Amino acid sequence: MLAIDVQMLRKEFQVQQSRGGLKGAVQDLFKREYKQITAVKDISFQIPKGEICGYIGENGAGKSTTIKMLTGILVPTSGHIKVNGYVPFKEREKFVAGIGVVFGQRSQLWWDIGVVESFQLLKKVYRVSEADYKKRLDELVDRLQLSDLLSRPVRKLSLGQRMRCELAASLLHNPEILFLDEPTIGLDIVVKTEIREFLKSLNQRYETTILLTTHDLQDIEALCSRVIMLDDGRIIYDGGLEELKARWGKGKEVVLQFEHPTTLARLQELTLGLDVAWQLENELSAKVFIPYERANISEVLSRVVGVLQIQDIKINETNTDDIVREIYKSGSAEVKRLEIDQPEGVTIHA
Ligand SMILES: Nc1ncnc2c1ncn2[C@@H]1O[C@H](COP(=O)(O)OP(=O)(O)OP(=O)(O)O)[C@@H](O)[C@H]1O
């Protein structure tokens, strides 16, 4: 079953333009000029129930605008959306009962009252029964370690504490779909890790579908099997994270520690005919860069390990941050490269 179904979704904004100078300001008083911005340009994607999908893109790519349309805050200019079987901006009451939303930069909790009082208000808003509320709250307090925070006003909480409370607030009514807009922004690494672990177990236990936007690719690595990449309002990649790495990653780096001193010339001689690049760090340690498609790691290793005694080997995986940065930078030319020999399950949008 589909949790989210988006077809040819588009959002345009009219933005007021100001003319410069005194004359312009006077003209603006009488007749405003408007400019049209298309934040989301006819995108389509489907997310099955139970999937955790990362929605990424640079600043201004259109991520928040999409999330706002998916949660019914904004009405699309054109296109179709079904979330949990509902059209988000139409059937509001039924729709919101099935979704949870956390905007990392904004709070859904009341600033001056105790956390638990906010929870009780949300219980009323979502019409959660006393028994369900109690059960759910106990579980969330336990798993997000909230017991010391419940009586404190939100304004007295640290960012990490507040974010744990925000997550609990969004889940009190046990929604089937959770939308997270930058859920780990500004948090330290310990809290980020706790939140990722919590989301993973939530997904496993309840099959909660999660769509999250983030600039932190560690969130994606930790949580998402699938990633949708947006650039200037259009989807430029929709597929698995592993495929993304395999297709866009340039290669792997292997670091070798030798038992006995060796030389660069000796290493190059051993891998003669293979398209790899050696770098000697000292006489007992060297790095070799093995480009994907042009050489394979087992061939390189078998040639070296068979002859030299090795003390240690480390394989450095492709860094997703670098890959994604490069895709953003390279734009359409690189997208064309992806279109060749497209693997199954990966949709590339030009
Ligand atoms: N209410 C609005 N009125 C006019 N323009 C808007 C409005 N909301 C968003 N935009 C514009 O739409 C484009 C997409 O913005 P959006 O906030 O969706 O991007 P984003 O990918 O979420 O970026 P960020 O990572 O910075 O949050 C931007 O050019 C933005 O200025």
UniProtKB/TrEMBL annotation:
GO terms for molecular function: ATP binding. It holds the Pfam family ABC_tran. Keywords: ATP-binding, Nucleotide-binding, Transport. InterPro entries: AAA+_ATPase (IPR003593), ABC_transporter-like_ATP-bd (IPR003439), ABC_transporter_ATP-binding (IPR050763), P-loop_NTPase (IPR027417). CDD domains: ABC_NatA_like. Gene3D superfamilies: P-loop containing nucleotide triphosphate hydrolases (3.40.50.300). This is Vitamin B12 import ATP-binding protein BtuD. The gene is btuD_7.
